[in-house]
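Narrative summary of target 7.
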Amino acid sequence: MREPPSRDDNETTTARCPICNSGFTPIRRQRYCTNACRQIAYRRRHHSADPVEQLPSTRHRDTTVYTCDHCEQRYLGQQWCPDCNRPCRRVGPGGICPHCDEPVAIQDLINITMGGHQQLR
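Modeled conformation, tokenized:
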């Protein structure tokens, strides 16, 4: 029959990690052999029963419209004008227009729908 564990923290004993089952010499009341195993145990204890579906991540640059100040050409996700070999200026978030296949910024669409009128303050 096993003896109950000693509560003396300074006593030198060996233990088994409950995650990877490797033997180690615990320091004080250490339960896991490494921080990696401790993190795995934490994640298992706090794992959500209903996992949230992750949307595919996109970089902001991929959905940003840029314009070349020299040739006034617009690009989606390109910060450098290949024709002029110059950096482009950020216009804002946007995408490709479904009608003309040209990059269009959201700010351009907002200005069109407001009809060029100033907002009341």
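The chain is about 15% helix and 20% strand.
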